[in-house]
Amino acid sequence: MNAPAAAESNPWPALWALVIGFFMILVDLTIVTVATPTIIEDLDASVNDVVWVTSAYMLAYAVPVLITGRLGDRFGSKYLYLAGLTVFTLASLWCGLTTTVDALILARVVQGFGASMMTPQTMAIITRIFPPAKRGSAMAVWGATAGVAMVVGPILGGVLTDGLGWEWIFFVNIPVGVVAFVMAWRLVPALPTHAHKFDWLGVALSGSAMFLLCFGIQEGHQMDWAGWIIAMIAGGIALFVAFVLWQRFNRAEPLVPLSLFKDRNFSVSNVAIMCMGSIGASFGFPLMLYAQAVRGNSPTQAALLMLPMAVMSIFLAQPVGKLTDRLHPRQVLGFGFAVSLAGFLLLMWRLEPGIAVWEIAVPMGVIGVGNAFIWAPTAATANRNLPIQLAGAGAGVYNATRQVGSVLGAAAIAVLMDSRLAHYLPGAAAHGEAGAARIPDPHVADLFSRAMQQSLWLPAAMYAVGLVAVMFYEKPRHEGFGH
């Protein structure tokens, strides 16, 4: 039986093949966070430099993802996925071999570009190979993979950094990439392609806007919000407005068909996933720095503080996935955001020197319960009402939105950590001493904890925004919902 026929009769093997590569590229969004203090010390870098190691990956991931969704429709989703997987795997080798933070940032840009080629293909392929009755369950698996990857990344990063060195958080991608390539080549079908007129002006406007906004936000505090930084941010906003207007008046084939947003559930899902992207990219940095600098935890010990979150997300993934075909998304996601916000506020309240491990584990477990009710249902609800011909465009927009949230979240958390450290410990943020080793002075440790605690208001605010947004969901229109 050939691949297309096999996928038509049983598409699940193709899904699992795609999930391996998708999981790997999402793990790399957060795997660096726990290794931040070690990289600061080994490469003689600042906190802001190392945040750019993640931001560069996210930015290179986010900017092209709109066009790569369309490229998959034109040249074949399977083949663009395999090309992106090859780029990603080779760039991972480059990351592990670097000896300077500048070279590491450059390698991460290439790695992010490979990820941008892969992600929209996974969502588009799933949408096309699964019948409507099973699409919700399949997208739930895809969405749960994103949620689990966000918390597994730091844990895996801690184990590898402690056991083998920070370089191995990148080297580990090589065997996984090879396995993912072989499985995708054998199990993923080569689907029919469609002709497209590519909106290169839209690509240029959206990419330029994203770069100017993110670079300006992240470097603003370091540069004392100089005039040219403000001009970059203003320019980014202006270009984004120009991009939206161009999409509205482009009579050929816009990069983002604005008709997508006529579907309320697609629009709400994009707000929700942008919030989650921001949370996933931002909350790990303050927490991991607190754990290692204040508590004196090793990278592995620090990462294991997130284990309850990962366990609950994995344990609940299957039962929550089944709920997405039966319950109103407002109920499922409203519960998820409310529980996660409550757990996060509890974590912030207790984040002080000398607290017991269980005082961190309990709120992390609560956050994990809430997150399980967010990641998969959001993905399952986003494209459910869209026509099949918009699968590629919808996947591209959804993934771009998540990455926009990740980029802005990483940039904003760098600003907050820098400003809070500068307030409580002048000079520490610029030179990286505060994050490189345990702080022996109890008074300094208390001030550092306050800085990290206040930085966590960003992800807390994003949970609150997401909670408000999901109240606007409407009942899905697909046949058989609720049975």
From TrEMBL:
The keyword Oxidoreductase does not apply. It is found in: Cell membrane. It holds the Pfam family MFS_1. GO terms for molecular function: transmembrane transporter activity. The chain crosses the membrane at residues 12-35, 50-67, 79-99, 105-126, 138-156, 168-188, 200-219, 225-246, 267-290, 302-320, 332-349, 355-376, 456-473. One of its GO terms (cellular component) is plasma membrane. PROSITE patterns: MFS. Gene3D superfamilies: MFS general substrate transporter like domains (1.20.1250.20), Multidrug resistance protein D (1.20.1720.10). It is a multi-pass membrane protein. Keywords: Cell membrane, Membrane, Transmembrane, Transmembrane helix, Transport. Residues 14-478 form the Major facilitator superfamily (MFS) profile domain. InterPro entries: EmrB-like (IPR004638), MFS (IPR011701), MFS_dom (IPR020846), MFS_trans_sf (IPR036259). Belongs to the major facilitator superfamily. EmrB family. NCBIfam families: efflux_EmrB. This is EmrB/QacA subfamily drug resistance transporter. It comes from Nocardioides kongjuensis. The lineage of its organism: Bacteria, Bacillati, Actinomycetota, Actinomycetes, Propionibacteriales.
